[in-house]
Amino acid sequence: MPTPPEPTEELRQAVWSQMQQEQRRPRGRAQRAPQPAHQYAVQQFAPTNQMSAPQQQQQQQLPAKQTSGVAAFIGCLVVIGFFVLVAVSILGAIFS
Fold first, then answer.
1. Residue 24 gets which letter from DSSP?
2. Tens of pLDDT along 28-65?
3. What pTM was estimated for this model as a whole?
4. Fewer CB near the terminus (10 Å): N or C of the chain?
5. End-to-end distance of the chain based on CA atoms, in angstroms?
6. Comparing C-alpha atoms, which of 44, 47, 48 is closest to residue 8?
7. Nearest to 9 by CA among 1, 73, 17
């Protein structure tokens, strides 16, 4: 298993300042302006599955809005299909 590169002092300072900034920021506030260039280095070494709360909310809300109609339509088709299957099996048992 490859070992990750040793973080530089500049990278550590960037991570530390980012953590302090996150702690000071109110929770209900809108997302920040674009991040400076040194933040890219911090995100490059950060795990991809860990995001800040506003980013997670935005990522969860966008696909839900786009696919909710399709999911409801498919769900209705499954339920109607189940009822048709039950009706056919009952009618088959009665008239056989």
1. H
2. 655 556 555 555 555 555 555 555 555 555 555 555 55
3. 0.32
4. N
5. 65
6. 44
7. 17
